[in-house]
Amino acid sequence: MIHITLPDGAVRQYEEGISGLQIAQSISEGLARKVLAIKVNDEVWDLTRPIAKDAAIKLLTWDDQEGKATMWHSSAHLMAEAVEALYPGAKFGIGPDIEHGFYYDIDLGDRVISDEDFPLIEAKMKELASGAHAYKRKEVSKSDALQYFGNKGDEYKLELIQDLEDGQITFYESGHFVDLCRGPHLPDTSPIKAVKILSVAGAYWRGDEKRKMLTRLYGITFPKQKELDEYLVLLEEARKRDHRKLGRELELFTFSQMVGSGLPLWLPKGADLRERLELFLKKAQKKAGYYQVMTPHIGNVNLYKTSGHYQKYGQDSFRPISTPQEGEEFFLKPMNCPHHCEIYKAKPRSYKDLPLRLAEFGTVYRYEQSGELHGLTRVRGFTQDDAHIFCTPDQVKSEFVGVMDIVMKIFKALDFKDFLIQISLRDPNNKEKYIGSEENWEKSEQAIREVALEQGLNAEIVLGEAAFYGPKMDFMVKDALGRKWQLGTIQVDYNLPERFELEYVGADNEKHRPVMIHRAPFGSMERFVAVLIEHCAGKFPLWLVSEQAMILPVSDKYNDYAEKVLHLLENYDIRAAIDDRNEKVGKKIRDAELKRIPYMLVVGEKEENEGTVSVRRQGEGDQGSTSVEAFAQLVKDEISRMLAD
Ligand SMILES: [Zn+2]
Ligand SMILES: [Zn+2]
Question: What is the pLDDT of residues 100-128, one digit of tens each?
Answer without folding.
Answer: 999 999 999 999 999 999 999 999 999 99
